[in-house]
Automatic annotation (TrEMBL):
Signal peptide: 1-19
Organism listed in the record: Bacteroides faecium
PANTHER family: METALLOPHOSPHOESTERASE, CALCINEURIN SUPERFAMILY, SECRETED PROTEIN
Domain Calcineurin-like phosphoesterase stretches: 63-265
Database matches in InterPro entries: Calcineurin-like_PHP (IPR004843), Metallo-depent_PP-like (IPR029052), STPP_CPPED1 (IPR051918)
Protein name stated in the entry: Serine/threonine protein phosphatase
Keyword match Signal: yes
A Pfam family of this chain: Metallophos
SUPFAM superfamilies in UniProt: Metallo-dependent phosphatases
The keyword Ion transport belongs to this UniProt entry's keyword annotation: no
Length: 355
């Protein structure tokens, strides 16, 4: 008996030696669940050098939590950088050149390369010079399809960019699960062109994806009131905004079951940086739409980037319920801040039911 206890003690020591001990640990509600982790717009982490380690903290926490939370993927809502193409930062809205910002975003996701598939969509700040004056972007330079070995088993479709080149600006990723069947995560470029929407329609209408549950990940869709954008003030053209995406792609679709976005940002309380709504599609099914952003969570546009807030999306074994929880690995690191690691208001902790 003593020998058995000694062996168990050694095993526990080995376990703790390989995993950091957080005062607060996120756990599954049901051991048969799996999760996807939602990373909101990281632009304010990358635009300041002092904030960049916080972005890496998020992805490092995700990498460390893959076994315990049975993580299938990480999803990022776009705006990986503050400015896509600048040489001289103003020191106020960032002290990093665009090249330094893209390198920081790339470095953060290196934590997941070879460990976990991640799905990125492009935001308005990822195009043009500062924010979508045109379709110029360095996204494909830093995130080519060969980059993450995990994509070899999940990346199933790639669309063309505005120059006719296949890039991950428009892409689809397949995940096979025991309880939810096959899930297709479709990533769509910011303010997508008609060609991008047509590509997305053709993908999800393919017979081999007919029974997939499709999650649409796009940067801009809902504002903080839960209303879809009709038009936004960007020079990029041609472009479709949220209501057009709904009418042309989501509403007529038979298998898009969830829309996820970021983008909306207000220097106010957390409630005004998140939103949720449901609408019936052409077949009368309720389609949940969720917006989550956190870049001004500390109450400042030029702050720390978002207090490391993430959303844990737990896919319950019943195949229809997703439990949403909002968590910060930054606050969870220390006993002095552990009581702030969860946001538990009704708009930050709720269930999504997929019909």
């Amino acid at each position: 008996m003593k020998k058995l206890l000694f062996v168990l003690a050694l095993c526990m020591q080995a376990l703790y030696a390989s995993a950091q001990i957080y005062p607060v640990r996120a756990e599954l509600t049901d051991k048969n669940s799996f999760t996807m982790i939602l990373i909101p717009d990281p632009q304010s982490y990358t635009k300041f050098d002092a904030n960049q380690p916080l972005f890496e903290l998020q992805t490092a926490w995700i990498a460390n939590s893959i076994p315990s939370l049975n993580i299938k993927a990480a999803l990022c809502t776009g705006d990986l950088v503050e400015q896509n193409e600048i040489r001289i930062p103003d020191g106020v809205n960032g002290n990093q050149t665009s090249n330094e910002q893209w390198k920081a975003a790339s470095r953060a996701f290196e934590r997941l390369d070879g460990k976990l598939p991640y799905v990125l969509c492009t935001g308005n700040h990822d195009y043009g010079y500062e924010k979508s004056e045109n379709r110029l972007t360095h996204f494909p330079d830093y995130f080519p399809s060969e980059r993450n070995s995990c994509w070899r088993n999940t990346l199933v479709e790639v669309g063309l960019d505005s120059k006719g080149i296949p890039t991950l600006e428009n892409a689809a990723y397949q995940f096979e699960t025991d309880t939810w069947g096959k899930i297709l995560v479709l990533s769509l470029e910011f303010a997508p062109r008609d060609e991008a929407i047509e590509w997305a329609k053709k993908v999800i209408e393919k017979e081999k994806y007919a029974n997939h549950k499709v999650i649409l990940l796009t940067h801009s869709f809902l504002d903080y009131k839960g209303e879809r954008f009709i038009k936004e003030d960007y020079k990029v053209t041609p472009a479709n905004y949220a209501e057009a995406i709904w009418q042309k792609l989501v509403y007529p679709s038979k298998n898009i079951c969830l829309v996820v976005c970021g983008h909306e940002c207000n220097i106010t309380d957390n409630e005004h940086n998140v939103s949720f709504r449901t609408d019936k599609n052409k077949d009368g099914k309720n389609i949940p739409q969720m917006m989550f952003n956190a870049q001004t969570a500390d109450g400042q546009w030029f702050g720390n980037g978002g207090d490391c807030w993430l959303r844990i999306m737990e896919f319950m074994p019943n195949g229809k319920t997703i439990k949403i929880k909002t968590f910060s690995p930054l606050f969870a690191l220390s006993p002095s801040s552990a009581d702030k690691a969860w946001r538990t208001a009704s708009y930050d902790q709720f269930d999504i039911v997929i019909e």
